[in-house]
């Protein structure tokens, strides 16, 4: 299918400059949000607006709304995999204990050999200076 | 008579093969960037002290670069529109404008990183900075790759050749824009 045929198949007329202007307006709001100093407002203006901007770019610039269903399925499957990745790894990273496991006190520190290496390196550096 | 590649002429599942391939590439890109961002988010939530490191990033530089990428996405989609109208030279001019946006983005990034590195904030300065340089660095590499591909497509478009590729590189460029839309609040706003 040529570009012309594709255009004929998707006769959606969009005002791209207007869409860009809205995106810039949203950018201004996301920058202004943190200056209010309210955590919830910052989260909404930063990440909520990022989601809206991403949706607008995907829909209007990438023409995802008139794309074939197979593309929607491809993207949906990949995004679900990302959610699975997060939910599979997050407990290990963000929690210190679970039903059958517990991080010991030294979990976040370097192993002894590495610590000595860092110390030795620091000592040598100090002697050389 | 010009020779056309299979990606130009064949249509699988009602989608031109070239466009299907671009979406396929983007799915793998989602895994790359999604993996980095998901990993960053879970570590960031577990390390509130990273906020002190993130406080050193420059919000205004990040906002300016977001504006630059949004504007380059506008020129990319207008190039696609011109290609659909069969106006190759106009599409090429708009693609060169998009390349200019990418160059501006990378130049600003270069100055920003130079400033940060000379102030001692390197990739080894802490967890936040490791993610910062890795995520923004991989993203900048994608911007550069898009610019190089766009040069070839714009040169062909000048001669009204392979205009369908203007849309394909545009889809890629908009994806790179979307990645930055998420990197901006994560690295520059959340402090």
Structural notes for this entry:
The complex is a heterodimer of chains A (129) and B (191). Chain A is mainly alpha-helical and 129 residues long. In chain A, 70% of the residues lie in helices and 0% in strands. Chain A is built from 5 helices and no strands. Chain A has helices at residues 3-9, 16-32, 39-61, 69-94, 112-128. Chain A is flat. The termini of chain A are far apart. By secondary structure, chain B is an all-alpha fold. Chain B is 81% helix and 2% strand. Chain B has helices at 6-9, 17-46, 50-54, 59-84, 88-118, 127-158, 164-189; strands at 11-12, 15-16. A two-stranded antiparallel sheet of chain B has the order 1-2. In chain B, α2 (17-46) packs antiparallel against α6 (127-158) and α4 (59-84) packs antiparallel against α5. The chains are: A mainly alpha (129), B mainly alpha (191). The interface between A and B is large, with 44 and 54 residues.
């Amino acid at each position: 299918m040529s570009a012309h045929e594709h255009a004929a198949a998707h006769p959606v007329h969009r005002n791209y400059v207007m869409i860009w202007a809205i995106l810039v307006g949203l950018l201004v709001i996301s920058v202004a949000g943190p200056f209010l100093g309210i955590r919830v407002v910052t989260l909404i203006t930063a990440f909520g607006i990022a989601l809206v901007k991403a949706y607008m770019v995907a829909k209007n610039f990438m023409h995802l709304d008139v794309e074939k269903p197979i593309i929607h399925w491809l993207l949906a499957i990949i995004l679900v995999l990302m959610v699975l990745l997060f939910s599979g790894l997050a407990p290990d990273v963000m929690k210190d204990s679970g039903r059958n496991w517990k991080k010991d006190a030294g979990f976040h520190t370097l192993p002894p050999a590495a610590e000595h290496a860092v110390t030795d390196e620091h000592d040598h550096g100090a002697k050389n200076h | 008579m010009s020779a056309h590649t299979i990606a130009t002429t064949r249509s699988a599942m009602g989608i031109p093969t070239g466009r299907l391939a671009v979406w396929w590439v983007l799915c793998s890109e989602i895994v790359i960037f999604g993996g980095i961002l998901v990993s960053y988010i879970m570590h960031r939530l577990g390390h509130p002290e990273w906020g002190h490191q993130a406080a050193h990033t420059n919000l205004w530089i990040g906002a300016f670069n977001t504006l630059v990428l949004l504007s380059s996405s506008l020129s990319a989609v207008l190039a696609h529109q011109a290609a659909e109208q069969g106006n190759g030279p106009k599409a090429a001019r708009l693609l060169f404008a998009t390349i200019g946006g990418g160059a501006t983005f990378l130049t600003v990034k270069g100055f920003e990183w130079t400033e940060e590195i000379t102030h001692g904030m390197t990739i080894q300065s802490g967890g936040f900075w490791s993610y910062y340089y890795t995520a923004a660095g991989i993203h900048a590499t994608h911007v550069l790759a898009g610019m190089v591909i766009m040069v070839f497509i714009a040169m062909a478009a000048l001669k009204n050749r392979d205009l369908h590729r203007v849309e394909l590189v545009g889809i890629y460029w908009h994806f790179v824009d979307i990645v930055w839309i998420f990197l901006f609040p994560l690295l520059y706003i959340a402090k």
